[in-house]
Amino acid sequence: MSKKTENLIDIRGLKKYYPIHSGVFRKHTADVKAVDGIDLTIRKGECLGLVGESGCGKTTMGKTILRLHDSTDGRVYFDQSPEKIEELEAKVAAGDLDAATKKELSQADILSYKGLSLKELRKSIQIVFQDPSNSLNPRMLVKNIIAEPLMIQGILKGKELEDRVVELLETVGLSRQHLRRYPHEFSGGQRQRIAVARALATNPKFILMDEPTSALDVSVQAQILNLLKKLQDEYELTYLFVTHHLLVVKYISQRVAVMYLGEIVELSETEDLFARPLHPYTRALLSAIPDPNPENGTEKIILTGDVPNPLNPPTGCRFHPRCPYATEVCRTKEPVLESAGEDHQVACHRWKEMA
Ligand code: SF4
Questions:
Q1: How many C-beta atoms lie closer than 10 Å to residue 331's C-beta?
Q2: Whole-number Å distance between alpha carbons of 246 and 223
Q3: Which of 256, 257, 273 is nearest to 265 (CA)?
Q4: pLDDT band at 297 (very low <50, low <70, confident <90, very high)
Q5: Which phi and psi (to 5°) does residue 189 adopt?
Q6: Which of 40, 137, 165, 331 is the most buried (most CB within 10 A)?
Q7: Alpha-carbon radius of gyration of the chain
Q8: How far apart are the CA of 324 and the centre of ligand 1, in A?
Q9: How far does residue 4's CA lie from ligand 1's centre (Å)?
Q10: 8 Å CB contact between 132 and 172
């Protein structure tokens, strides 16, 4: 197997439900199904873009993988061999989990990590949030913000710690002179550079980029994107890049997953997705990108209505109330992801007619 196709993260049946309690006795009456049974792999060294409208569950999915939210169900394997994963998945499917298998699962599935194993995992998985104004503590000096993960993990101290912080600042295009300043003394782009430096501190393998350029001025977005690209190459990082901005994903990602109402509806190499979008939802998202040449006459697909309530998702295909191509089968039978070519999968009953 080539290095490019090795998986760093293998997600199986991931669910994140938020329970609703109502009545005098606060009984559990329903669930908001933010993430509803996702299978997805993230390859070593790739940037996987995750796109979809606000409220589709993409950030919740990322944060559940990172253990910032507790999962409802499913497993997330981090840097495990495919053989080990298949062996464990076969046992899970058979429903016959003896004590030895449970122990193996607790070592391989990061959703079950606790205590020391979770602390150790945190060195390898990091996050860069959307808005650095909120994610950086305004009362802390930059040197302490960046040093904090190294101190919590007990990795470095004293002079070595300060040298590492300076090295990280220089890596993101800042310098020693910024050590003793507070976040408010920086521009938005510089603050995001500090957040990236902090995320890099523990030499992670995987970084969740949660809309890292959305809160920045357009002129600064390109600089941060170029920085993230450069760092990915230099440090062989793996990114899950969550965004609703399709042109950003086109620029930075090797593959793209399209999410709708808690599910992945299309997954493809980036170039193929933009050249050959198959799911009607993906087509609608792509058609909303402004075309700089109005004479091209690009057809706009206007989606009617909002994303349905994940408390009560539509039956069959969840996109059917908004899909211009929906037929009877779409209202009753849920489509599953199926192969639509090399490295391209789609969940739609009618993709072949539309290809
Ligand atoms: Fe539209 Fe039917 Fe395909 Fe869903 S399954 S996207 S409703 S055509």
A1: 13
A2: 17
A3: 257
A4: low
A5: -65, -40
A6: 165
A7: 22
A8: 8
A9: 32
A10: no
CA distance 67 to 75: 12
- Residue pair 236/154 in contact by the 8 Å Cβ criterion: no
Measured distance CA(65)–CA(47) in Å, rounded: 16
One DSSP character per residue, 274-343 reads HHS--SHHHHHHHHTSPPS-GGG-PPP-PPPSPPPPTTSPPSSSTTGGG-TT--HHHHHS----EE-STT
Name the residue type at position 134: N
Q: CA 244, CA 214: separation in Å to the nearest integer?
A: 9
Q: Which residues contact 39 (CB under 8 A, 6 or more apart)?
A: 11, 12, 13, 14, 264, 337
Pocket test residue of 323, 328, 329, 332 for ligand 1, highest count of atoms within 8 A of CB? 323
- Summarised one tens digit per residue, pLDDT across range 53-107 is 988 999 999 999 999 999 999 999 999 999 999 999 999 999 878 999 999 999 9
Indicate whether residue 147 lines ligand 1 (CB < 6 A).
Answer: no
Q: What number is the average pLDDT over the span 22-41?
A: 93
Q: Report the alpha-carbon distance of residue 311 to residue 30 in Å, rounded.
A: 7
Which is the closest atom of ligand 1 to the Cα of 330?
2
Give the position, in ligand 1's atom list, of the atom nearest the Cα of 351.
Answer: 3
Ligand 1 centre to CA of 46 (Å) is: 29
Phi, psi of 92 (to 5 degrees): -65, -45
